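ok so for the tutorial part 2 we go from a plain amino acid sequence to predicted structure tokens. step 1 is just haveing the sequence, like this:
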Amino acid sequence: MSPPRTPPRGRAGRAVTVRAGVPRRSPAAFRWLTGLLVALIGTVALAGAAAAAAPAAPPAPAPAAVAQQQDGIDVSGTLRDQNGRPLANVTIVAERDGVRAAEATSRPDGRWQLTVPAAGSYTFRLDETTLPPGTQVLQGETTRQVTAGSLNTVVFRFGEEAEGLGAGGFAIFVRLFVDGIRFGLVIGISAVGLSLIFGTTGLTNFAHGEMVTIGAAVAWYVNVAGGVQLIPATIIAMLIGALLGAANELGIWRRLRHRGAGLIAQLVVSIGLSIALRYLVLIFFGGRSESFTDYTAQTVRNYGPVALTDKDLSAIGISIVVLVAIALLLQKTRIGKAMRAVSDNRDLAASSGINVDRVILFVWMLGGALATLGGVLFALSELSSTVQYEMGFRLLLLMFAGVILGGLGTAYGALLGCLIVGILVQLSTLVLPLDLKYLGGLAVLIVILVFRPQGLLGSRARIG
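step 2 — the prediction. this is what the tokens look like for a chain of 464 residues:
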């Protein structure tokens, strides 16, 4: 008669229950992702060594149109006519107290940038004699406050005024609606990771916006300084974003959880981390808006009443593919089922043999990669295709609006809420100035939550 088997013991000598059919090893998806990250880090290291060994090319002289002064504050924008075509060789003048302070000429992609001597109130005016014939100007002069250390953008409006919802008004409505879907998908890509992190850990991560900024800045550096085309540069940046998410989890949040830190304390830490990362990006990246080398000048194509560039269509297609892949990951894979189990009841998932810490680590890595992709798509969605150190903070409010509107902790709710917010933000420009377009989405968020506080797909009570 064989002696009775001793149950396996954990690190502290406690008996560990292993249920039939529940493996104790890491999920295959996690092992595959870890191996891919290691391989990619080696590839990037070899590429960096080869680039360092190669002779450096002399820097190209900056064109006169974008030459910057040593002192001053940059103001920029992009000119596109009523049909979405970029306006080149148009003069923009900045005046202060009736005195001309700076002047710039738009480039072939419509992008312009000038430097004013100091902070203050300036009047920016188009020289309409330099506009192409047939260009219809709605707002060719605007006054705004220029501040140091922030993104100073000036928008001029072109086109015909819409009268009600006639033929022209309906076409404008359709264009804004489609553009809102595109913008909502971009917000959703970034917000899904935020929602998954909240669902598995209960943490409201205010530093998620800075992960968006860092991801876009890394993609810009690999694209511009490294000379890598934007698509592979984005893939490299996504993997670095996944490593950043893992560093966040292993270096900060896991330690806080294991030491019994409450959610309020973790919330305060995330706010402090957000501020620290934002100004670290400002120190190393700078306060100016930087453009990618690819996909800046795009031709607007008309699809009936809808006018889109190729990069807009690509952003919509990439967002849909990625979001469908996330849905399949959650529904069909073992790691996805483990993520949903941890989100529903962490203690019950742990007692069932699921390694909760590894699942949360995978969620952080996935969230970091998605935040990076969202940052690149958000930068490309801007007319000037620029990266700026505050872009993640500006997107964070819309991400929170979408996540709360859809229902906290649900990935599908985050997607639905972000789509609604994106559409409302773009449609609000029918009645609001372009600089206040984010106000419409946030106002509707407040109205909806007054009647349904749990969000559109959230439950009234969470058990467990």
